[in-house]
Amino acid sequence: MTPSEIPPRTARLVLVTPDGRVVGALPPVAATTPWWQEAGPVVRAVRDRFGIDATILRLLETERDRPHGGAVTYLAEVARPVPAEPWAGTLDEQPLRLPYARLGGPAADLAWARRVLDGHGLRPAGAPVQVRSWNLSSIWRIPVEGQVAWLKAVPPFFAHEGRLLERLAGGPVPRLLGQEDGCVLLAEIPGEDLYEAGPAQLLVMVALLAGLQRSWQGRVEELLALGLPDWRAPALEAAIAAVVERTADELAAADRAVLAGFLRSLPRRFADIAACGLDDTLVHGDFHPGNCRGEGAAITLLDWGDSGVGHPLLDQPAFLTRIPGEAVGPVRTHWHERWRATVPGSDPDRAAALLAPVAAARQAVIYRGFLDRIEPAERVYHRPDPADWLGRTAAILGG
What we know:
CATH class of the largest domain: Alpha Beta
Number of domains: 3
CATH superfamily of the largest domain: Aminoglycoside phosphotransferase (APH), C-terminal lobe
Strand content: 15-25%
Order of helices and strands: EEEHEEHEEEHEEEHHHHEEEEHHHH
Largest sheet: 5 strands, mixed
Structural class: alpha+beta
Helix content: 25-40%
Shape: globular
Number of helices: 11
CATH architecture of the largest domain: Alpha-Beta Complex
Mean pLDDT: 97
Number of strands: 15
């Protein structure tokens, strides 16, 4: 489904006070964007229509069985009771619930951020603005004197981001103001998000990532010690086999047959990839132009929570599928030329071809991991993804 085909989003808030009292529900409001995790448009619509300041905690239910658009119900915290409609639902307790999805969780994160800002001598210049809340992150924009700070809280499986940013300080990554227990506070980055990057900027992005990856080759134990997941051949082979087995009932028979052959061939495929001469290193994990910000050639690579350890070209497929078709050839050529220059005698062309189905299957592994580690109401974000990515894996192998 293309963005233009996604239906509009209407949002209904079930309100609860800090002491746990359910106030009731507000009538639905229209959100300006369809994306379920974008809290900002909903918070603004509720303020404009009802004069109520609310903090969205988590998803309760959705009309559609996959993202995005349609009618969505969220749980939201308000400071005191307000007029609302009766709500007949119940609120449960979940062991996988994230701290920022609980009552008082966002307030605790913001209090931590204020302490960090105080330590830097930075004074708030306005009220914090909620930007996003879902099972993968909670993001707030905090105005401070002369700039903006960004608060990001993440689940435990992304908590290595802060530790990694400390180690990457001075490189083309966000400037860290503070990090602790899955929370990072980041300085503002001049420019804009580069979803629509031009050809020259795409080449800069690739060069920046490849430079970082080259600097971490031969140092993967340091990365693993920071808590980054292991996507090297042995670990990834086992993880792919496990996700294929767990997802088999959701796959077409033809795809299951193709994937069975793929699993049998993985040891040889990984050996052939290793023979191409590029050592394991830092993998961004979600490298695409929208995760880059800047202006001109001054570009910062964002969002390192998905990072791990594996083959450097695992980052290539996601990037190439999110740029204009006419740019794919030149960007791929530039990418491979940089690696050939960096590692003489290496064969990135062959490595990339061999890695294509592995990279798709890794995405199935990632989404299966999300489903295993988030509470049930939020699984609608990712439920179809393991089967979808394994279907893409089979299509690559067959095509």
